[in-house]
Design a protein that fits this description.
single chain, alpha/beta, Aspartate Aminotransferase, domain 1, Aspartate Aminotransferase, domain 2, three-stranded antiparallel β-sheet, 14 helices
């Protein structure tokens, strides 16, 4: 008899966290490692948010259980923020506050999937999505995209992948890991396709404020109001407000689904930590000045990283449109002599580069896209340039 259930034994560890852990372990051992793995801003959480948490610690009402679905005032603030930033009008009753964005992802698929239901999953995809789908009993149906198509799925691909078992489409823009941003027209067309084909949409908007140049974020239920009754919107404070460690996310959807999700959360975790919720309240109801500053820094770094990566022989990279990642095609480095060694896959390439150049990145296999690699530019300019320089030197 297996000691671990088949369900949990089948889970793959988070590749992004694994790469980050390996880089940090080498740093702890005294190695000078440059890490491009973790998807988190390198800026501190803005001071007014931290102060709200400090103040909350001293208030006894935050020392007790609160409603499982979230503090009422935070849910109201999230509804107001959603209208402000997305133009999507919702009621506070449509909001569930979760323990980070990952918790919202997992809860969404638990709410929508019965065993055997298919979920259309464009690749490259964030590593957690297929695991959350599978744990909920769903079946991920991967739809491949590439740098040649701008890492965007087409209506024709959706039509070809849809079957009688298709229940959900996962839609992400701005995208992790590719940095792609769908135009408002593309978002609208995909939303209308979902309505016409009676397919639910789970749309992850965690990078909504991180778009660059002429690219703009567009929220599907705003552009396609008819999809509201078959759409779940996922979001959180992690990326926008540099609050990855605070663990506050949320799910927005029809009342019946949110009620079921809240019942589920009442048994799984109860309420999100009250101090973190108070900090999130200060974030979503406050100024976006700090967000603008961070976005400007990310835009500058993304431009620099894009140039440096394309200067490496054997590497091609589209310019990031959103989020804080470059997703270069590194297949030209496979099979090459790299300081007496070679790699046949991007998994092997990542290990080789970490070993030889002390640079950590996440291989494309983690995102369902072999031949590519994810480089986060959410790190200091000097470290970023040094890391890319080391790879260029290794490649020769």
């Amino acid at each position: 008899m297996n000691r671990t259930s088949e369900r949990l034994a089948a889970i793959a560890p988070s590749a992004t966290l694994a790469v980050d852990a390996k880089a940090k372990a080498l740093k702890a051992a005294g190695e000078n490692v440059v890490g491009f793995g973790a998807g988190e801003p390198d800026f501190p959480t803005p001071a007014h948010i931290v102060q709200a948490a400090i103040d909350a610690c001293g208030d006894p009402k935050n020392h007790r259980y609160t409603p499982a679905g979230g503090l009422p005032e935070l849910k109201e603030a999230i509804a107001a923020k959603t209208l402000r930033d997305s133009g999507y009008h919702i009621d506070a009753s449509q909001v569930l506050v979760t323990n980070g964005g990952k918790h919202a992802v997992y809860t969404a698929f638990e709410a929508l999937c019965d065993p055997g239901d298919e979920v259309l999953l464009p690749a490259p995809y964030w590593t957690t999505y297929p695991e959350a789908i599978t744990l909920a009993g769903g079946v991920p149906v991967v739809i491949d995209t590439s740098d040649e198509t701008g890492f965007k799925v087409t209506i024709e691909q959706l039509d070809a992948a849809r079957t009688d078992r298709t229940k959900v489409l996962l839609f992400v823009s701005p995208d992790n890991p590719s940095g792609a941003v769908y135009t408002p027209g593309e978002v609208k067309a995909i939303g209308e396709w979902a309505v016409d084909n009676d397919v639910w949409v789970v749309t992850d908007e965690i990078y909504e404020h991180l778009t660059y140049g002429d690219h703009e974020f567009a929220s599907m239920p705003t552009l396609v109001p008819g999809i509201a009754e078959q759409c779940l919107v996922l979001n959180g404070v992690a990326k926008t407000y540099a609050m990855t460690g605070w663990r506050v996310g949320w799910l927005i959807g029809p009342n019946d689904i949110v009620k079921a999700c809240t019942n589920f959360q009442s048994h799984v975790t109860s309420n999100v930590a009250n101090v973190a919720q108070r900090a999130a309240l200060a974030a979503v109801s406050g100024s976006l000045d700090d967000v603008v500053m961070m976005r400007e820094a990310f835009a500058r770094r993304g431009t620099t990283m894009h140039r440096l990566l394309n200067d490496i022989d054997g590497v091609t990279c589209i310019k990031p449109q959103g989020a804080f990642y470059c997703f270069p095609n590194v297949s030209g480095l496979l099979g090459r002599d790299l300081n007496g060694k070679s790699a046949s896959t991007t998994l092997e390439l990542a290990d080789l580069v970490l070993e030889q150049a002390k640079v950590a990145f996440v291989p494309g296999e983690a995102f369902g896209a072999p031949g590519y690699a994810r480089f986060s530019f959410a790190l200091g300019d000097a470290d970023m340039e040094e890391g890319i320089r080391r790879i260029a030197e290794l490649v020769g």
